[in-house]
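Q: Can I see a sequence and its folded structure?
A: Here is a first one.
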Amino acid sequence: MKLCLSCHHAFADKGWRCPSCGAMPDKIDGFFAFAPNLAATNDGMDRQAHHHLDSIQEHSFWFRARNRLIIDLSSLYFGRAQNVLEVGCGTGYVLRGLQSARPEFRLSGSEIYTNGLCYARKRLGADVPLFQMDARAIPFVDEFDLICAFDVLEHIEEDTQVLSNIAKALRPRGGMLLSVPQHPFLWSRTDEIACHKRRYRSGELVEKCRAAGFEILRTTSFVAILLPIMLAQRLARSRLHDHDVAAEFALPRLVDRTFELLLEFERRAIGAGLSFPFGGSRFVAARKPDKSTV
């Protein structure tokens, strides 16, 4: 069901004009915009970030390894999902991975910046619906089998509000798959430049998901083996006045490949049932309970 953000009427029409109040979302750059005042500038992310991301994702061990883990977890815990939304889809890199690995998914993507959606459209084609949206006000109710948000919540002060909105947009027994940066002791200039509001404590995301009514299916850290290197790098680079975030991903090919192989070991271990207690990222797979149990 679609949800009118003006009068909060839920409806099942094909179009976006609300049959109750007649409201219709704006369009920006060809995308329906549900938070047009935030489409070009906001405090959650630098407006040029997607331009940089699009140029480095294909060449970074971290993005490639994370994508494979996302695909694994979506198969392990949400094998029957069909209607899938990625909140904060950015340039469409994750959606493209899911599109290839899970062709049965009916994918949709949202992003607060329309410049990211322009990259996503080129990467995904016209068959994947994309729209501009504030994750704190999702224009759907009881709609999706699975909602994903990867390294999104840390950009939003009201992360619990986002989780509540995700719960409303999911069908009963629908799934949620999240990742966030972890461990406050890793906080550095990189987080500040990325407009992060927080790095999560080890159990913090699970606590917030449960408070929003979710059942936890799985939680694990990721980038555990590389945690000492990550800490040393953050401490060293945080002292640089001309700190370049992109340099963390622009590694020599041999180093990049070695790090990817280490994360491949972690991915396989996670797939075999091992959960890492510490790591640069935290993943959570959760499920919305039946209406009768809410």
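Q: Show me another, different protein.
A: A second, unrelated one:
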Amino acid sequence: MFGMSKHVFRSLLLELRTLDGLSDSRYVSAEEKLAIFLHAAVSGGSNRELQERFMRGGATISKFVNCV
């Protein structure tokens, strides 16, 4: 779905967790944050499209696209 295999996604997640401090927040996991970012990068989708896809509010989407 993101243009990479599952093990590459997991490796990228591990790198971001250890080197950049990406972590779970109260309601959104680090995996979902990375998924939101990658989906935005690959599809070039709008904030609205990402809100519908991930069932999150616009502020949350903007926050995590910029966070990663």
